[in-house]
């Protein structure tokens, strides 16, 4: 998808790059949308647990079929739509009985194409979903399940694609875009191809207001605060704060692993993203 640079009629437009989207301009399917309460970084007690969240434009949540539960039923791609809740675009499918559903639009999928989700082997074309043990080694896949029939959890952002390396002892080895290699069960379902809208990362916001539309509030540096507000605050003039970079509560923010050692899926990781093999 090409990147579009418009004539800069305003100062913010001079640095604004956007995707030239060839998407449908119709309203989303009413039956496949629902209201979405945005927590604005607050927990159930109203306290901020995730900072710099709030405001932003209203969004309708599109209900996406991550399970692909209609097995061996052919569907036709009706159109492609924008989704404000994610970086990937959506493909609207229509089955023979008239039922419609959304999926993440993969690269090279076109309007009018026929795709199917199967528990066996089907054609290897973008959009078709099948178990990992039916897919040839070296194939790029996306929307991969972590547990059978639990719905896609891995590789759902724009441009994401995972390489199937091998299958051994009932587990498939997958190489992530980060370089991490992990195991999932061989009967987990995956979709052929990579997620579309890969040029999403090349777009630029052009102005601070576009971040506010997304619900991202301004970030204040710790060194600009007072010592009472941040461990890196205070000092005479422009100082870097001294000490190690940390959060307002003293949590180290560089070179310190924050992934929980008790996370259940840790045992399925063979090689970390830094290239170190897990013992």
Class from helix and strand fractions: mainly beta
Overall geometric form: globular
* Mean model confidence by pLDDT: 91
CATH topology of the domain at 23-200: SH3 type barrels
DSSP helix count? 1
Q: Strand percentage, roughly? A: 15-25%
Describe this structure in words.
The chain has one helix at 208-213, and strands spanning 3-5, 17-19, 33-35, 60-62, 75-81, 90-95, 100-104, 114-115, 129-131, 140-142, 144-145, 152-154, 162-168, 171-175, 181-185, 189-192, 269-271. It is 2% helix and 24% strand. The chain has 1 helix and 17 strands. A hairpin with an 8-residue loop joins β5 (75-81) and β6 (90-95). It has a domain at 23-200: SH3 type barrels (Roll), CATH 2.30.30.30. The chain is mainly β and 279 residues long. The mean pLDDT is 91. The protein starts with a strand and ends in an 8-residue tail after the last strand.
Strands, helices and their partners?
Blueprint: E1 3-5, E2 17-19, E3 33-35, E4 60-62, E5 75-81, E6 90-95, E7 100-104, E8 114-115, E9 129-131, E10 140-142, E11 144-145, E12 152-154, E13 162-168, E14 171-175, E15 181-185, E16 189-192, H1 208-213, E17 269-271
Antiparallel strand pairs: 1-2, 3-4, 5-6, 5-8, 6-7, 9-16, 10-13, 10-16, 11-12, 13-14, 14-15, 15-17
């Amino acid at each position: 998808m090409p990147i579009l640079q418009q004539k800069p009629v305003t100062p913010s437009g001079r640095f604004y790059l956007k995707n030239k989207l060839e998407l449908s301009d119709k309203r989303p399917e009413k039956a496949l949308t629902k209201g979405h309460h945005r927590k604005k970084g607050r927990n159930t007690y109203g306290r901020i647990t995730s900072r710099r969240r709030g405001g932003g434009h209203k969004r309708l949540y599109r209900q996406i079929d991550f399970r692909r539960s209609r097995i061996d039923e052919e569907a036709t791609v009706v159109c492609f739509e924008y989704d404000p809740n994610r970086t990937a675009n959506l493909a609207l499918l229509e089955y023979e009985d008239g039922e419609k559903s959304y999926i993440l639009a993969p690269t090279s999928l076109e309007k009018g194409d026929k795709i199917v989700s199967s528990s066996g082997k089907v054609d290897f074309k973008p959009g078709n979903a099948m178990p990992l043990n039916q897919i040839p080694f070296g194939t790029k896949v996306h929307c991969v399940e972590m547990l059978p029939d639990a719905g896609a959890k891995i590789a759902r952002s724009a441009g994401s694609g995972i390489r199937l390396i091998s299958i051994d002892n009932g587990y498939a080895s997958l190489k992530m875009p980060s370089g991490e290699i992990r195991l999932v069960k061989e009967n987990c379902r995956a979709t052929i191809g990579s997620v579309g809208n890969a040029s999403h990362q090349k777009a630029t916001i052009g102005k601070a207001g576009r971040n506010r539309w997304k619900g991202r509030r301004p970030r204040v540096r710790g060194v600009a605060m007072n010592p009472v507000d941040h461990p890196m605050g205070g000092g005479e003039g422009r100082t870097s704060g001294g000490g190690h970079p940390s959060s307002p509560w003293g949590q180290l923010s560089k070179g310190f692993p924050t992934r929980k050692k008790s996370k259940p899926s840790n045992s399925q990781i063979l090689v970390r993203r830094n290239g170190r093999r897990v013992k």
